[in-house]
Design goal:
The complex is a heterotrimer. By secondary structure, chain B is an all-alpha fold. Chain B contains 12 helices and no strands. Chain C has a two-stranded antiparallel ribbon. In chain C, helix 3 packs antiparallel against helix 4 and helix 10 packs antiparallel against helix 11.
Chain lengths: ~325, ~260, ~300
């Protein structure tokens, strides 16, 4: 049974005050996330990631389409006990202490008092807020609020957690901790669905990713699958203080740094290039394949989307 | 009451307390004790009358202001600050949220009114040194005031469910004023004909009717309140608040939280 | 059925039912209240206090109180109420808030002074109201007229009435009839004629529908009174001449040389009773009539509300 099945959810907002114009936030979205997966939902700002999450949480209502979570209708309140949600830049009742807030949320999630007390302590340790749990949230920094947000999302030990930009507002240490936490959730067999525009996070964490841009799903797949579809490149470094004319002719971009020259070339150019270097009697230092990052894939995808945007709409 | 509603209600109450809403009691106490002392010095015969009139009017006005100013923010503020996201992504139904908020606000006002009522009785004791049987009528006036609050709470919540706090405040205050003149509106309706009569009568029944809730003056003169009036006011407040509340539920049920 | 739809259906039902229930309760509560208590209490009755409490918006508040006065009178009038205790205070508050609201004084002169059920039966307060009005609007001849009217009609105080009309006639742009009234008061002869002139003047110069309707009713009653008086005199003459009463109106008309049967302002023939009394056929249509009423008839005031 898939953890999340999105069956053609779409959303059109009407904007404007007097004469309302429709604005597409999300084109019909078809997506399935398996149980136990860490799934990355990628896209630049304003791509429709938050809209998708809000639709799944029942915070906004779809123009059309439906979804199933853990095999149940997604609007079913019973489903909500099984999921945790961290909104983007979360904000909480600032008159409460962190402890009171989690306790309140535990009550709303229907946790029995005994469980609740234990879990509240547990998650405070987990997100590193145990020492400040008695302080009112109005005194919390942005990063601390983000941690509170994560704590409340995992408080009731949900089967699926939805994180909207979980790394934003965190320092490098914090990001590291969140990454570890997500790994830990995966170990426990939980499903993690998170949106981000920071690709390195997705690259290290995700089993699969989906890329969304301008409300339209561009591609879905395992990270390796996606990146391998982009042609590989190699980095060639040799000794030298100037770039030979015969290499310039090839039109390859070369960088001089001290005694070394560095060039990035396509894999299929490699043989020709090395022949030229040998003929010029240059001393080769290294040839390394460059792993295509998700980022270059992403950029390529988006560039492609820009040019085909007209046909997609 | 289901437990989620009571949790939301108690959190709403906690918010009001922490936002120092109950500080209004200090202003109330100052006003009342000042009046009691001053009146004791100036007028001999009507000091009790003044204390009851002023005290109960202040209870009513303070409560109305609090009901409106908290009520209008109950929903819209949570949407604006996005505190609702983490509430509604839990097994909380939207109608439970509205109903919980209503009880939270009503509870806040009840507690507030309790303390103010205590103040009124203290001031009364200060000026007349004794309680008489007729003073029990003050409880009826207080009961009516609380019924009035319930209606205003529900209305403020209704406006809050679709409009900005500022507009909600304007709506709620206008309805409070219109509601206080509802009797005139109905008399006016009775004197017109045709479509005007139809519209005026409809409006007169739709706006809250507070005219029957104000018994302060007659109680100050120790005139008894008919049991029928108590019964009808109770029913009216119950149904009117229920109506406004279900309107709020209906609107909120379809609202996109942008 | 999904939970959202269920909530919608239940909430809609509750909404409709509670609206119906609250309207019903309101309706019931109105019926239970004895008519005497409906609006019979003014929470604030001091015009000065109300003026302070209106926070400078006294014009608006005056309009509200004026509306209330009109509604109060109209509503109670419609229900044959025996008294109008609040009319005087309402008008006093209105004029105190806005001393230049002339129609309020007019209303007072027409409805404050007459005895119930036609008015509140408070001629002294009516006089005081007019004097307050004159004090604040010395250039408005209409108020002198209203004052003279009350003195003449209700108090039969010809001296003061003459003075009021006289003073009013000197006001710039005063209606020419003011001088005539002053003269009439001096003679105070021909009661019917004077009264008819006064009511006609009211009818012609007012803007207020209710006041105008009231004037019409009075004019009709005056004509009927005058007719009945003349016919009754004719009956007496007939009796003196023939030694017996006329047996029919036709006989009386013939003896008096009147063409046809005499009719009242509504076109209905006057009745001649066997004991020689002239009566109105439908006395209930002439609420202000003083003659030609069947023995024991009490006018149930029912002037149509405009």
């Amino acid at each position: 049974m898939p953890a999340i099945e999105i069956l053609g959810l779409e959303k059109t907002y009407s904007v404007g005050f007097w004469r309302k114009r429709p604005k597409r936030a999300l084109y019909p979205l078809q997506l399935t996330v398996e149980e136990g997966e860490v799934f990355g939902f990628l896209g630049p700002n304003g791509a429709g990631k938050t809209t998708t999450l809000k639709l799944l949480m029942g915070l906004v209502f779809p123009t059309a389409g439906s979804a199933r979570i853990l095999g149940q209708e997604w609007t079913d309140p019973a489903v909500k006990a099984q999921i945790g949600f961290l909104p983007e830049q979360p904000y909480f009742y600032d008159y409460l202490t962190a402890h009171e807030l989690l306790n309140y949320y535990g009550q709303l999630s229907g946790m029995p008092a005994k469980d609740r007390n234990r879990r509240v302590e547990e998650v405070f340790h987990q997100v590193g807020l145990h020492d400040v749990r008695g302080i009112q949230l109005r005194k919390f920094s942005k990063g601390m609020l983000q941690r509170v947000g994560i704590a409340q999302a995992i408080l009731h030990d949900p089967k699926i957690v939805f994180f909207d930009e979980p790394m934003s507002g965190l320092d490098p240490m914090g990001r590291r901790e969140v990454r570890d936490l997500m790994e830990e959730l995966k170990q426990k067999g939980k499903t993690v669905f998170f949106s981000t525009h920071i690709l390195s996070d997705a690259e290290t964490l995700c089993d699969r990713v989906a890329i969304i841009h301008k409300g339209l799903l561009r591609s879905v797949g395992a990270v390796e699958e996606l990146t391998s579809s982009v042609q590989g490149k190699v980095e060639v470094i040799w000794q030298g203080t100037e770039i030979p004319a015969s290499i310039k002719v090839l039109g390859v971009e070369c960088h001089l740094s001290g005694e070394h020259v560095r060039a990035i070339i396509a894999e299929n150019q490699q043989d020709v290039f090395i022949d030229v270097l040998r003929r010029e009697r240059q001393r080769l230092v290294s040839i390394t394949p460059v792993r295509t990052s998700l980022e270059s894939y992403f950029v390529e995808k988006l560039r492609h989307a820009e040019t085909t945007a007209g046909s997609a709409v | 009451m289901n437990s989620r509603i009571s949790h939301i209600a108690s959190n709403t109450f906690r918010e009001a307390v922490r936002d120092r809403v109950l500080y209004n009691l200090i202003a109330f106490a100052l006003l009342l004790s000042g009046a009691a002392i001053l009146v004791g010095k100036i007028s001999i015969a009507i000091e009790k009358l003044v204390v009851i009139n002023l005290g109960l009017t202040a209870v009513s006005l303070f409560g109305v202001v609090i009901a409106i100013f908290i009520g209008i923010g109950l929903v819209s503020k949570e949407i604006e600050k996005r505190t609702l996201y983490t509430v509604l992504s839990r097994p909380v139904r939207r109608w439970e949220f509205i109903v919980g908020k209503f009880f939270g606000l009503a509870g806040t006002l009840a507690v507030n009114t309790f303390f103010m009522a205590l103040g009124v009785f203290l001031a009364l004791f200060y000026v007349s040194h004794t309680f008489v049987r007729a003073d029990a009528l003050i409880f009826v006036a207080l009961y009516f005031i609380i019924l009035e609050f319930l209606i205003i709470c529900a209305l403020a919540l209704l406006f809050s469910s679709f409009s900005s706090p500022l507009l909600s405040a304007v709506f709620a205050f206008s309805l409070f004023v219109v509601g206080s003149f509802a009797e005139d509106l109905r008399n006016f309706a009775a004197m017109t004909h045709g479509i005007t009569r139809w519209l005026a009568t409809g409006t007169a029944y739709l706006v809250p009717n507070f005219s029957a809730f104000n018994v302060i003056t007659s109680i100050a003169h120790e005139q008894p309140v008919a049991g029928q009036l108590i019964f009808h006011n109770t029913l009216y407040a119950f149904f009117y608040a229920l109506m406004a509340l279900s309107g709020a539920v209906l609107i909120f049920e379809y609202r996109d939280l942008k | 059925m999904n939970s959202r739809r269920r909530t919608t259906i239940i909430a809609s039902l509750v909404l409709v039912l509670s609206l119906a229930a609250s309207s019903f309760v309101l309706h019931r509560a109105d019926q239970l209240r004895p008519p005497g208590t409906l609006d019979e209490v003014l929470f604030l009755s001091s015009p000065t206090v109300i003026k302070r409490a209106s926070l400078g918006y006294d014009g608006l508040v005056a309009c509200i109180y004026w509306t209330r006065a009109v509604q109060y009178f109209g509503f109670r009038h419609h229900n044959y109420a025996p008294s109008y205790n609040l009319l005087a205070p309402l008008l006093e508050i209105t004029t105190h808030l806005d001393p230049h609201l002339i129609v309020a004084y007019e209303f007072g002169s027409s409805f404050l002074a007459p005895q119930p059920p036609a008015g509140a039966g408070e001629p002294d307060r009516a006089v005081a109201l007019m004097q307050y009005g004159i004090q604040n609007n010395p250039d408005n001849w209409r108020l002198y007229y209203d004052l003279g009217f009350v003195y003449y009609m209700e108090l039969r105080d010809y001296k003061n009435a003459e003075e009021a009309f006289e003073r009013g006639s000197h006001v710039p742009h005063a209606h020419p009839f003011m001088k005539i009234f002053a003269a009439q008061m001096a003679q105070h002869a021909g009661e019917y004629r004077t009264a008819r002139m006064l009511w006609s003047a009211t009818y012609e110069t007012t803007q207020d529908k209710q006041i105008r309707q009231n004037a019409v009713e009075h004019l009709r009653a005056l004509r009927a009174d005058e007719d009945v008086k003349h016919l009754q005199e004719a009956v007496t003459r007939f009796g003196e001449r023939t030694g017996h009463l006329p047996t029919s109106m036709a006989e009386l008309a013939e003896a008096e040389g009147i063409n046809g049967i005499p009719v009242d302002p509504d076109g209905q023939p006057y009745l001649l009773t066997p004991d020689g009394r002239i009566e109105l056929r439908s006395p209930e249509n002439f609420p202000f009539a003083t003659r030609g009423l069947p023995p024991g008839f009490r006018p149930k005031y029912n002037a149509p509300i405009p």
